[in-house]
C-alpha cells in the first residue's frame, strides 16, 4: 500500500459546481486487453483514495518532428548541426491554447473547480488531484489495485473514455491503463526492500559466471574471440583516438538504482586496462535520490553499472564520463524519470508525482527521496547511452509514442540517444513472445516481441556482434550467437522513418524473411531495428570481490551500446575541437549512402527466438546488426567533412 499512502493527500475539496450535462458521447481512449505478466487484480481501489491525475495534452507539431529532426541531422541538409535550444523546442511543441482550454472546460464542467486544475510549466499537462470515485465517473473507468507475484502493488484501470470531441486534444491520461513499472531488479534474498517489483524494464546483460583467462593481457589481441578487452575493441573498430576537447564535451551513462557501480570493481579493471583511471569515478548526477548503493553487492546489482563504466570510461579517457543515477532505493525510477531530469518541460508542475509509476517523488516512504522530483536539473550530455529496455506489449502505444517524441526533441537539441536493442533476438526479455490472439507476452507465444525504446525511430538502437570462435579482430564479425542474440525486428507501433526506407525496403526485396504477417509486422511500413551494432560477447569485466579479484565474462547488447557511445564521443570531441557542433541524432547520417563505407557490413549469424531462427544478418541493413559495426577512422573523416 505504499503507493497509495504516497499519493493520498489530505485535502478537502469544496463542493463541486453543478455539472452541466455532458452532451457529447464518450469513447474509449485507451484500453488494455490483459494484465502484464506476473500481475493480478487484488481488489477494488477505495473510493476516497486521492489520485494525482495528469491529463497529457496533444502537443503541437509533433507530426513535424521527424521532418524537423531530419533538417538538423541529415548529412545533406543545409541546416545540418543547427541544433535547437530548449526554448525553441518548448515553443514548437507546446499544446495549443485550444487544447488546453478544451480539456480544462471539460474538467470544469465535470465539477472540478478551476483552482483544482493546474497547468504544468511546459504546458503539456493539466494536473488534478481527484478521488477514485471522481475519476471513475469522469473517465467511465473502474480502478483496481493489482498485486505482483513477487510483491509490490500498482493501481490501474482496464480502459477509460473521454468525450469524443476531446480525443484530438488528449494524448494520454495517467494513471490509467499502463504498467510501466519502475526499474527495480530482484533484491538479494536476504534483504527486504519495501519495493519488490518485477523489473519490467530490464538490463541487457548476461553472465555465465565464467572467468576470463586470467589475468587478461591488456594489449594482447590473441584471444579476442574468447576475452574482449578495450584493446580488442580499439582494433576491431579502428578506434585509437585521444580526446583533446574534453572541457567542451560530455558523455552520459544511465543507471537505475539499485544498480550501482563498485569503485573496487572499476579500479581492478582500470589497474589492468587503463592505469591512469585508477581511483577515478564518473561525475555523479543523482536523479530523484539516485545513489550508488554498496549495501547489496552481486552480479545482479553491479554487473551492468560496472560494465558500462569500465568500458565507457576507459574508451574515452581522459574525457570525464557523467553517470546519471536515477531513482532512490525504495521507489526506483524509469526512463521518464531520466527524461524529466533532462528536460523541465517534460515534468509535471509542482515537481509532482507521475502516477504512471515512473517513480513518484517526493517519496515519503522510509528511506525514500523525500524531495521534489528532479526536474530539468541537468543539461543533457552530448551522448547518452542506456543499456536497459522493455518490450512493446508492456505499455500502451500512446505512452511509448509520447516518450519517443521526447527522444526526438533531445535529438533536436543535438543529443545522441543510444539504447541497447535487447538480448533475446526476435523474442523479448526471458524469451517471451507474443500470443497473436491476445497480444500478450507468453512463454509459448509465436509473434516476435519488439523492444522498447529501440522501436522508437528517434533513438539509435545498438545490436550485438561477436568475433566468431577461432577468428581474430581482423576477420569479419558475425551477429552475436553466444549466450545472447541481438535484439532486432520491426515495430507494431512505430512507422518506418524516412531515413531507413531505402535500406529496409531493399532488405525485404533482396532477402525476404521467411515469416508470416502473423509472426511480425511485415507491412514494410514499420520501423526496423537495430540501427547499428558492436561487439557484445565475452567482455572481461573487473569484479573485485565476487569473483575473487578476477575478471568475469559478460554478454549482451549492454556491452555494445556504451562502446558505440564512446566512438561517437570521440567524434564529437574532434568536431568540438574545431568549433563544430556534436553530431546529435546520428541515424540519418549512418543510413546515408555516403556513410556506408564507414561500416563493416555483418553478413553471418541470426537472432533466433520465438521458436524460429530469427532474422539473418545479410549484406546491407538487416534487423539483426543494422548497418553493421563502425569504423571509427572512416566515420571521423566523414563527420569532419560535415558542417
Ligand atoms: C500457450 O499455452 C496455453 C496454455 O497451455 C494455451 O492455452 C495457448 O493456446 C498456447 N498459445 C499458443 C500461441 O500456442
Ligand atoms: C505495422 O506497422 C504499420 C506502420 O507503423 C502499422 O500501421 C500497422 O498497424 C502495423 N501492423 C501491425 C500488425 O501491428
From TrEMBL:
<keyword id="KW-0720">Serine protease</keyword>
<dbReference type="Pfam" id="PF09286">
    <property type="entry name" value="Pro-kuma_activ"/>
</dbReference>
<dbReference type="GO" id="GO:0006508">
    <property type="term" value="P:proteolysis"/>
</dbReference>
<dbReference type="GO" id="GO:0005576">
    <property type="term" value="C:extracellular region"/>
</dbReference>
<dbReference type="InterPro" id="IPR015366">
    <property type="entry name" value="S53_propep"/>
</dbReference>
<comment type="function">
    <text>Secreted tripeptidyl-peptidase which degrades proteins at acidic pHs and is involved in virulence.</text>
</comment>
<feature type="active site" description="Charge relay system">
    <location>
        <position position="304"/>
    </location>
</feature>
<keyword id="KW-0964">Secreted</keyword>
<feature type="active site" description="Charge relay system">
    <location>
        <position position="308"/>
    </location>
</feature>
<feature type="domain" description="Peptidase S53">
    <location>
        <begin position="227"/>
        <end position="642"/>
    </location>
</feature>
<dbReference type="InterPro" id="IPR000209">
    <property type="entry name" value="Peptidase_S8/S53_dom"/>
</dbReference>
<keyword id="KW-0843">Virulence</keyword>
<dbReference type="InterPro" id="IPR030400">
    <property type="entry name" value="Sedolisin_dom"/>
</dbReference>
<keyword id="KW-0732">Signal</keyword>
<feature type="binding site">
    <location>
        <position position="622"/>
    </location>
    <ligand>
        <name>Ca(2+)</name>
    </ligand>
</feature>
<keyword id="KW-0645">Protease</keyword>
<keyword id="KW-0479">Metal-binding</keyword>
<feature type="binding site">
    <location>
        <position position="602"/>
    </location>
    <ligand>
        <name>Ca(2+)</name>
    </ligand>
</feature>
<dbReference type="GO" id="GO:0008240">
    <property type="term" value="F:tripeptidyl-peptidase activity"/>
</dbReference>
<feature type="binding site">
    <location>
        <position position="601"/>
    </location>
    <ligand>
        <name>Ca(2+)</name>
    </ligand>
</feature>
<dbReference type="GO" id="GO:0004252">
    <property type="term" value="F:serine-type endopeptidase activity"/>
</dbReference>
<keyword id="KW-0106">Calcium</keyword>
<feature type="binding site">
    <location>
        <position position="620"/>
    </location>
    <ligand>
        <name>Ca(2+)</name>
    </ligand>
</feature>
<keyword id="KW-0325">Glycoprotein</keyword>
<dbReference type="GO" id="GO:0046872">
    <property type="term" value="F:metal ion binding"/>
</dbReference>
<dbReference type="InterPro" id="IPR050819">
    <property type="entry name" value="Tripeptidyl-peptidase_I"/>
</dbReference>
<dbReference type="InterPro" id="IPR036852">
    <property type="entry name" value="Peptidase_S8/S53_dom_sf"/>
</dbReference>
<feature type="active site" description="Charge relay system">
    <location>
        <position position="558"/>
    </location>
</feature>
<dbReference type="Pfam" id="PF00082">
    <property type="entry name" value="Peptidase_S8"/>
</dbReference>
<keyword id="KW-0865">Zymogen</keyword>
<feature type="signal peptide">
    <location>
        <begin position="1"/>
        <end position="18"/>
    </location>
</feature>
<protein>
    <recommendedName>
        <fullName>tripeptidyl-peptidase II</fullName>
        <ecNumber>3.4.14.10</ecNumber>
    </recommendedName>
</protein>
<keyword id="KW-0378">Hydrolase</keyword>
